[in-house]
Design goal:
Elements: H1 10-19, H2 21-27, H3 35-59, H4 63-67, H5 71-96, H6 103-113, H7 117-124, H8 130-148, H9 154-222, H10 227-258
């Protein structure tokens, strides 16, 4: 029955979609409710989130890796919401291409296409081309759904969705380029700031050494100084040393913040 929810069958369903999408979409019920495909999308979303978190932490065991744990929670939410949004977008495109199917059929297609989300999660960790590869994989399954469920010719589906995916690939590459360039600029700015702080510390140390030398010269020229004068010079020296220590603490804090 289409309305029965069989969670145990989700792995077999996912494998069938991945290995033989044409047969699956050809036999897929076009109606029967939203719960079953939505649960399928949520389960696959959780799996994709776990895979992404593990791979990210393995490659970048740092703050980025720890933050990737949030994808375990966020990924299924994004996929659940994305299934409806994606279905709405696909529904409009398929209607413009001549489909006579309902929104429910479009939603079921979009939800079951999430079977490839664990694959795209693995591809997504590849720098630069990971997102592009994920989009290209998605293209094949969208075309299969277009042909088998919506009765659109394969040629028309490949052309229309091929152009759309090509634009999305271009946007993905441009976004990554801009993000990496901004990261490089931030690193250069941080390095310049650290160099400036280091140089400032060195300059203050040199000034302290010069003051000490001047004090020693004055002592030699003036002979024995009064206790009051010696105490005043000692206070000046201690104040200078305190400023140096504060500057060094600021430098260490800046370096720690930049890591």
């Amino acid at each position: 029955m289409a309305n029965e929810l069989n969670i145990a069958a989700i792995p077999q369903t996912a494998i069938r979609i991945i290995t033989n999408p044409a047969a699956f979409f050809r036999e897929m019920p076009k109606a029967g409710g939203y719960i079953e495909p939505l649960v399928f999308a949520l389960v696959l979303g959780c799996l994709a989130g776990i895979i992404k978190a593990v791979l990210t932490m393995a490659m970048y065991f740092s703050t980025i890796g720890v933050m990737a744990l949030t994808s375990i929670v966020l990924m299924p939410i994004f996929i659940a919401i994305g299934s409806f949004i994606g279905a709405a977008i696909l529904f409009v495109i398929w209607k413009l291409m001549g489909s006579q199917e309902s929104f429910e059929a479009a939603f079921r297609c979009a939800a079951y296409i999430t079977a490839i989300s664990p694959i795209t999660a693995v591809l997504g960790v590849i720098p630069w081309i990971g997102g592009v590869l994920g989009l290209l994989v998605s293209l094949y399954y969208v075309v299969m759904a277009s042909v088998e469920v919506h009765g659109i010719s394969a040629k028309k589906a490949w052309i229309v969705f091929g152009v759309i995916i090509a634009l999305l690939c271009l946007m993905s590459m441009c976004t990554q380029y801009v993000a990496k360039r901004a990261l490089r600029n931030a690193e250069m700015t941080n390095k310049s700031l650290q160099d400036y702080l280091d140089q400032s510390s060195k300059n203050m140390q040199k000034q302290t050494e010069m003051m000490q030398q001047q004090m020693q010269q004055q002592q030699m020229q003036q002979g024995q100084q009064t206790p009051q004068t010696q105490e005043q010079m000692q206070r000046q020296l201690q104040e200078t040393q305190r400023q140096i220590e504060e500057m060094q603490k600021q430098i260490q804090q800046q370096k720690a913040a930049g890591k």
